């Protein structure tokens, strides 16, 4: 895969922090930015895939029953 240069603006403090992490990790700025971009793309891809699947289920009328919703909330809340 060929590489291209990309330029963007960021806060000076973020750049100092990135460079400090680079020193501690023995990695250059380009490596860290690519690592961050990979993580962002993976997360966003997953989120959008899940949203797309959810919308397809909704369009097909595939909703949780009242009992399923109640059971799920029961697992997420504690009884006092």
Using the CA coordinates, give the radius of gyration. Answer: 21 Å
- Contiguous uncertain segments of 5+ residues: none
Question: What's the average pLDDT?
Answer: 94
Secondary structural class: mainly alpha
Total individual domains: 1
The quaternary state of the protein chains shown equals single chain
| Alpha carbon gap, first and last residue | 57 Å
**Element-level helix/strand string:** HHH
Please outline the major beta sheet.
none
Count of helical stretches: 3
Summarize the amount of helix as a percent range: over 70%
- Could you tell me the number of beta strands? 0
Strand content: under 5%
Shape: elongated
Give a quick precis of the structure.
Helix content is 70%, strand content 0%. By secondary structure, the protein is mainly α.
Please explain how this structure is put together.
The chain has 80 residues and is mostly helical. The chain has one domain (12-76). Helix content is 70%, strand content 0%. The protein is built from three helices and no strands. The N and C termini lie far apart (57 Å). The model has no long low-confidence stretch (mean pLDDT 94).
List keywords for this structure.
single chain, 0% strand, 70% helix, 3 helices, mainly alpha, 80 residues
């Amino acid at each position: 895969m060929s590489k291209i240069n990309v330029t963007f603006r960021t806060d000076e403090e973020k750049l100092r922090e990135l460079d400090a992490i680079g020193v501690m990790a023995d990695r250059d700025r380009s490596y860290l930015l690519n690592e961050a971009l990979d993580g962002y793309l993976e997360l966003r891809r997953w989120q959008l895939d899940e949203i797309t699947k959810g919308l397809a289920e909704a369009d097909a009328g595939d909703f949780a029953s009242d009992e399923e919703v109640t059971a799920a909330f029961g697992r997420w809340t504690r009884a006092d």
